[in-house]
Design brief:
The complex is a heterotrimer. Chain A is an all-alpha fold. Chain A is about 55% helix and about 0% strand. Chain A has one domain. Chain A contains 16 helices and no strands. By secondary structure, chain B is an alpha/beta fold. Helix content of chain B is about 35%, strand content about 15%. Chain B is globular. By secondary structure, chain C is mainly α. Chain C has a two-stranded antiparallel ribbon with strand order 1-4. In chain C, strands 2-3 form a two-stranded antiparallel ribbon. In chain C, helix 2 packs across helix 3. Classes of the chains: A mainly alpha, B alpha/beta, C mainly alpha. Chains in contact: A-B, B-C. The interface between B and C is medium-sized, with 32 and 28 residues. Chain B: One of its GO terms (molecular function) is 4 iron, 4 sulfur cluster binding.
């Protein structure tokens, strides 16, 4: 005869399992399984970027993940928490992975280590660990790195030549593993022709130089990468950070998370609309000055942010409407910074700004309680039988 | 205006097929029955038999006391061995008064006096008879049905809703009952309609029970009872959610459904009412689902009240592995049994033995604000905010966030990826706040008592003073009179 | 020079005047606070806190001589109310709140001397001379006065046992 434990556990006595999936219902189970699926969703785009930017990018990614684990264990130990238990939740790995996707593909090793230090130690653990941080760790770390190391943070690599329409002007050979290691670990100068501007910074430079031209001609004048086209850019064949690569594969990952019920649609849709609508309007007004919505959606970190950054639950509002507002705000701010600000890419700044607005959104956007008005007053009692 | 739909909810795997294919079987009498005096919400019943008495099946052994209470009847014929304390089927594991009954094996009914035509009785009379049969809410809440019917007689009732939702996973007792005994259920429903003079009757059944829906629809033909399938979504069987789904009406906070002209009863309650009025039989047994991954033979049994859970489990089935958790009721809102030696009571809808795999338990982790709890809450609350406030001791703030609107359905705890015991926190906070309220009440009383006593002491002192003064005056007068006498 | 000194002097004088008036008009009556706190207390004058009366205790806690957790019959609820009124943090760990208690009279030892019900501040003990005394659970605050006067030591303060109706879930440990 089995003997029950005392005092008894409070119900419910079953917990959501990974077995059932549907877009409508939530199928998340426990935290580690959830994080694992996020990493799975990130993999296709990441693998593609490894291929497009070569071995150095893979080594950089590896450094990010390892150093993040080290920082996390160190801090957990310092705070007297169980290292094995908290490390297993996988949140540090996801943060490091996303940070790696935000770095220039051939960035020096110390940039990655400083980056994960900022993300894990300063932004996450000092604020109280998982669930307590105000800012998205990867985004905040990227912003800090960008301000502190502007040169290293803007070394964008031209992608591998694969398609027929790649310009033949590629004058450098992709490095093998050993020379890749030396690129990352010694401050060896990058080969001529390896780096190029991103489309976003290209546009910015053109506009600042006072030579507004149609977007297609403006970008194709840049050397070593193909002209902007929806197909090539959507696939990821342009210079940029790892995560600015393939909009298509990132979206696939995002749709996977949506299907698994791990993320909700509100924040991504909000961000995409927040960028697309103003882009569309300004493009209509003066097409030679402002690139269209497709350009803004496919370039920069738009897709990465939409599926993997504004969906970070810790730093975004909890309600559906709140998330929509959050996404819209991120998108709009990112567009404004890209178009009128000093930086060619503004997603990280926009996300940080909206992160700080999250408590306010949560304070004012709350669901209506059953049987109560929005203000919390009980609804009036109305008996249909009584007045007959 | 568009109809309001039920919000939130979760879709736990039903596991209904474990038990819903086997017809209801009658569980044999055990050697001893432990009939609890507290099988309902409210004051415990007070025994009217003494140890040594011989009782017949259905004979009253304890009568209701107080406004909210229900009587208890003998589940079989036999001898009362004792009136003693026994562990209650309650998470506290505290004892409760039970009548120990030794069956004589004859299972002999006492005199059954069903009225010739129950529908000809007055509504009040129907309520009285339902109350006298000891019928309580059989869905698990165990609120005395007669009290509920009586309360709603005062406020006019538009709609009688019969809850056939059975949204709890594993349970299939209502499903089987509706499939096998739909005619009697419909009779009971019509009786209840008569008792509250409801204008319409809606039966809500979750669409994962197609056989039960068709059986009920067939039985309901021509009776005016509408059988309506509702989506399978936990907690559809919760009163407020079912009302909203079926009528579009949202019951205002802090008010009873009856005030809005609606009353909800469970199908098993309707069945018990029909048995009581058409056959004269009080509530002495109920259908219990035996299920879970750890039992070898899941099924549905009609079990005499007072049968020990341990006896039931061992006789009806057995374990194919060591169960990780034994539950009375459903897995979402049921209780973990503190001890297997507890009797089956009127609210025992199921006894489940779940495996480690099924309960899928992990230790709580940090809240990552994923918002799953907010989305799953059928009441539109913010469970994560309430829990954070309760954990930091801010019970009042949690209350302002709507703690008392929480129906404790458990959807938030079920869905939480960090396994935070949200529902447990809310129930803890509700209890703590109630105790604080009680303490305040007592403090007020104490103050009044202390003031009363002070005034009384003052008055007594004054009276004493006055008495002394009078005595002194009398003595002085006497003395003066004596002096006068002497002088004279 | 003068143009700089004069305005500042005037400003200073004016602000000083305003502050002076404000301190008169908006003066916080300390004794009011004590009175308000006395209202929060049970008013049984049981003396368990070491003060002769609830009024004296209220003044002592306002003066800072007593912690807000001084009142055993009041328990946690009163301590919280006092701390809230005074705006001071409540160290509830300092409070050994063992839950509600009640006086229990050992029937076999009671001689019916009536001393206990004479001292009971809430009239919670019923009885008369040479008769068994009974405690009203509703009225007893477990102040302990009866325990002190009982000649046969037959009264003790015991914790009220929870029943199915009063039991509540305790806080989850994790």
């Amino acid at each position: 005869m089995p003997v029950s434990s005392f005092p008894p556990n409070h119900g419910p006595h079953i917990h959501n399992s990974t077995g059932n999936t549907s877009i409508l219902q939530n199928s998340s189970a426990h935290l580690p399984a959830l994080m694992l699926q996020v990493m799975l969703a990130l993999s296709p785009a990441t693998l593609f970027s490894f291929w497009a930017y070569g071995w150095p990018s893979f080594i950089l990614w590896l450094i990010c993940l390892t150093s993040a684990l080290l920082w996390e264990s160190l801090l957990l130990k310092l705070f007297g928490k169980s290292v094995s238990k908290h490390l297993k939740d996988g949140s540090a790995l996801v943060t490091a992975w996303i940070l790696a996707l935000c770095l220039p593909p051939w960035a020096p090793w110390w940039l990655a280590i400083v980056g994960t230090f900022l993300a894990i130690v300063i932004i996450k653990q000092i604020f109280g660990g998982l669930g307590q941080n105000v800012f998205n760790p990867a985004m905040a770390a990227r912003v800090m790195l960008l301000i502190a190391f502007p040169v290293e943070m803007t070394q964008w690599i031209n992608p591998a030549p694969v398609l027929d329409n790649m310009p033949s002007a590629l004058t450098f050979q992709f490095p093998d593993i050993s020379s890749s290691i030396s690129y990352i670990f010694s401050s060896q100068a990058l080969p001529d022709g390896a780096t190029g501007a991103t489309f976003l910074s290209d546009i910015k430079m053109q506009i600042e130089a006072g030579t507004p031209a149609h977007i297609a001609t403006a970008v194709s004048s840049s050397a070593n990468q193909p002209a902007y086209s929806v197909l090539d850019t959507g696939l990821g064949l342009h210079s940029g950070s790892l995560g600015e690569g393939s909009a298509l594969l990132l979206s696939l990952g995002g749709l996977f998370l949506l299907w698994r019920g791990i993320i909700t649609w509100q924040a991504p849709v909000g961000l995409l609309l927040g960028i697309a609508i103003p882009a569309l309007l300004l493009n209509q007004a003066s097409p030679e000055l402002y690139p269209g919505a497709d350009f803004h959606l496919l370039n920069g970190a738009t897709m990465l942010a939409a599926w993997f950054i504004v969906t970070d639950p810790v730093t975004c509002p909890v309600t559906a409407r709140g998330r929509l507002i959050f996404g819209l705000g991120c998108g709009l701010l990112a567009y404004l910074i890209r178009t009128f600000g000093n930086y060619p890419e503004g997603i990280a700044f926009a996300v940080m700004l909206m992160n700080s607005a999250t408590p306010v959104i949560d304070r004012y956007i709350q669901p209506r309680i059953y049987g109560r008005s929005r203000r919390g007053q009980a609804l009036a009692v109305n008996n249909p039988a009584a007045d007959k | 205006m568009f109809r309001k739909t039920v919000r939130g909810g979760v879709h736990p795997c039903g596991h209904k097929s474990l038990s819903n294919d086997s017809p209801i079987r009658y569980f044999p009498l055990s050697d001893t029955l432990y009939v609890s005096m507290q099988q309902h919400i409210g004051a415990p019943a007070s025994p009217v038999v003494r140890p040594g008495d011989h009782v017949l099946k259905g004979q009253l052994i304890a009568s209701s006391q107080g406004n909210i209470s229900a009587p208890v009847h003998a589940p079989t014929s036999g001898r009362i061995l004792a009136l003693a304390e026994h562990t209650a089927p309650h998470p506290s594991g505290l004892p409760v008064l039970v009548a120990t009954l030794e069956p004589d094996g004859l299972d002999e009914w006492g005199a059954l006096n069903p009225p010739s035509d129950p529908m000809a009785l007055s509504p009040e009379e129907v309520c009285i008879r339902i109350g006298a049969a000891g019928i309580v809410g059989m869905g698990g809440a165990t609120f005395p049905s007669a009290v509920k019917l009586n309360l709603s007689l005062n406020s006019q009732i538009q709609t009688l809703i019969i809850n056939g939702g059975e949204c709890e996973p594993y349970l299939s007792c209502d499903d089987r009952l509706m499939r096998e005994r739909a005619t009697l259920i419909i009779q009971g429903i019509l009786l209840m309609q008569h008792a509250v003079q409801a204008r319409e009757v809606l039966v809500g059944i979750e669409d994962n029970k197609p056989d039960a829906i068709s059986a009920m629809q067939q039985a309901a033909q021509g009776s005016g009872v509408q059988v309506i399938p509702v989506p399978s979504q936990y907690p559809m069987g919760s009163e407020k959610q079912l009302i909203q789904q079926l009528t579009g009406i949202e019951i205002p906070a802090m008010s009873r459904a009856a005030a809005s002209g609606i009353i909800v009863h469970n199908v098993a309650t309707a069945y018990a009412a029909a048995e009581a009025l058409y056959q004269g039989k009080p509530l002495v047994s109920r259908i219990v689902t035996l299920s879970g991954g750890a039992v070898t033979h899941p099924g549905n049994w009609q079990v005499p009240l007072g049968t020990l859970a341990s006896h039931f489990l061992n006789r009806a089935s057995g374990f194919n592995e060591k169960p990780a958790r034994l539950i009375m009721g459903g897995p979402m809102m049921g209780i973990q049994l503190p001890d297997l030696n507890v009797p089956v009571i009127k609210g025992t809808s199921g006894i489940l033995a779940l495996t480690e795999n099924e309960i899928n338990h992990t230790n709580p982790g940090p809240c990552v604000r994923c918002g799953n709890c907010v989305r799953s809450c059928p009441m539109g609350l913010l469970p994560l905010e309430m829990a954070a406030n309760i954990r930091s001791g801010e019970l009042k703030k949690a209350n302002e966030l709507g703690l008392h609107d929480c129906v404790a359905c458990g959807a938030c705890s079920y869905i939480c990826p960090s396994s935070i015991p949200l529902t447990h926190l809310f129930n803890y906070a509700k209890g703590e706040l109630a105790q604080q309220q009680k303490a305040r009440q007592k403090m007020e009383n104490t103050k009044v008592l202390a003031q009363r006593r002070e005034r009384r002491l003052e008055r007594q002192a004054k009276e004493k003073e006055a008495l002394m003064a009078a005595r002194r005056a009398a003595a002085a007068a006497k003395k003066a009179a004596q002096q006068q006498k002497e002088e004279a | 020079m003068l143009m700089a000194v004069l305005p500042l002097t005037l400003l200073g004088a004016f602000l000083g005047l305003v502050l002076g008036i404000a301190s008169r008009l908006l003066k916080v009556e300390r004794s009011n606070v004590a009175e308000e706190i006395e209202q929060l207390l049970p008013g049984t004058q049981c003396g368990q806190c070491g003060n002769p009366s609830c009024g004296a205790a209220a003044e002592a806690v306002v003066a800072g001589d007593l912690p807000p957790t001084f009142c055993p019959p009041g328990g946690k609820a009163v301590a919280e109310a006092i701390a809230g009124k005074l705006g001071i943090p409540l160290d509830s760990s300092a409070m050994c709140d063992e839950g509600p208690r009640i006086a229990l009279i050992n029937e076999s030892l009671c001689i019916g001397c009536t001393r206990c019900y004479k001292v009971c501040p809430t009239d919670a003990i019923l009885g008369s001379a040479k008769q068994m005394h009974v405690v009203f659970e509703q009225a007893c605050t477990a102040c302990g006065k009866c325990e002190d006067v009982c000649p046969t030591e037959c009264i003790s303060m015991v914790a009220i046992k929870p029943t199915l109706h009063t039991w509540t879930w305790s806080q989850p440990t994790a």
